[in-house]
Design brief:
This protein is mainly alpha-helical. The protein is built from 9 helices and no strands. It has 3 domains: 86 residues, no CATH class; 120 residues; 71 residues. It is elongated, with a radius of gyration of 28 Å.
């Protein structure tokens, strides 16, 4: 026995030099938490054995019978990990720039939305129109960027297409309001339905695209993007129920609507935080692995 878990001789291993292996216990046989990769070593520790040969089941164990293949498998895994690291690094380099732009687009988008809302409340058609046009321009830019980055993650494509479709419908609404046509309010209400549907689908695809590009880089943040979408759907359902409750209890319905509005604001803030974190995390990954390569 030569200090290995599977009973092989480290000194006689032809893979030792090629894999730069420091030996079983200091190399692949160490704990997973410390970078170990050997399933045989892990199995021995879990069952309280010093080596596989003291285990009564080793003669029929698939892992044990394939022990001679472990070095080749480790080499294959290492090559695959290196290849994926190169892919993630290249993708991170491309995405980081565009995600930062998406993050900073929130500022003109917020200003445009504020102007549009203020214009309606103050009966200032000029301010409302300027805000609506600014909002359409920022949304069009947002959608175009989503299409641009769809080259590395396909889920961004439908999100970008839907965003641009919303812009088209919004521009139509702006034109109708500018012409002061009869029944323009009915047209506006009718146009609101496809905007809501397209907005939901666009958000769904965008959030899951952000989650997808973080797989292999930050699983925790990836899951947060998926949970954010699920919370958005829950809030939408509660909002619909709130409006229905207005027919039964005005007070309860208003309280729920107000609560949903606050929750929607919180989700918008979280989206901004997650977008910042995603761009930051990809930037760190790019710098770290670019230096290692």
């Amino acid at each position: 026995m030569s200090g290995t878990y599977c009973g092989k001789s480290c000194d006689g291993c032809a893979w030792k030099a090629e894999l730069h292996c420091s030996g079983c216990e200091d190399g692949p046989g160490r704990l997973y938490a410390h970078g170990g990769t050997c399933q045989l070593a892990s199995c021995c520790r879990e069952k309280g054995h010093r080596t596989c040969e003291t285990c009564n089941l080793h003669s029929g164990c698939g892992k044990y019978l394939e022990r001679d293949m472990q070095p080749a498998m480790r080499k294959k895994r290492a090559e695959e990990e290196k290849r994926m690291a190169e892919v993630y690094t290249e993708r991170s380099t491309f995405l980081t720039k565009w995600l930062w732009i998406l993050f900073w687009l929130v500022i003109p988008s917020f200003i445009a939305e504020s102007m549009s809302t203020f214009g309606l409340k103050s009966d200032s058609n000029t301010i409302h129109m300027v805000g609506a046009i600014m909002s359409a321009l920022t949304s069009a830019t947002y959608g175009a960027i989503l299409l641009r980055i769809s080259s590395v993650e396909e889920k961004y494509r439908p999100a970008g297409i839907c965003t641009l479709a919303i812009v088209g419908i919004s521009v139509l609404d702006i034109i109708l309001n500018a012409l002061n046509l009869p029944e323009v309010e009915r047209f506006s209400l009718a146009l609101a339905v496809p905007i809501i549907i397209l907005g939901l689908y666009s958000t769904y695809k965008e959030f899951y695209a952000h989650a997808a590009v973080l797989i292999g880089i930050d699983f925790n943040l990836s899951e947060k993007w998926e949970r954010l979408w699920k919370w958005r759907i829950r809030i939408l359902i509660v909002t619909v129920v709130s409006f229905l409750l207005l027919f039964l209890s005005v007070l309860l319905g208003l309280v729920l609507i107000f609560s949903c509005a606050i929750a929607a604001l919180v989700l918008s803030i979280l989206k901004l935080v997650y977008l910042y974190s995603t761009a930051e995390r990809l930037s760190i990954y790019k710098k770290t692995h670019s230096n290692n390569q």
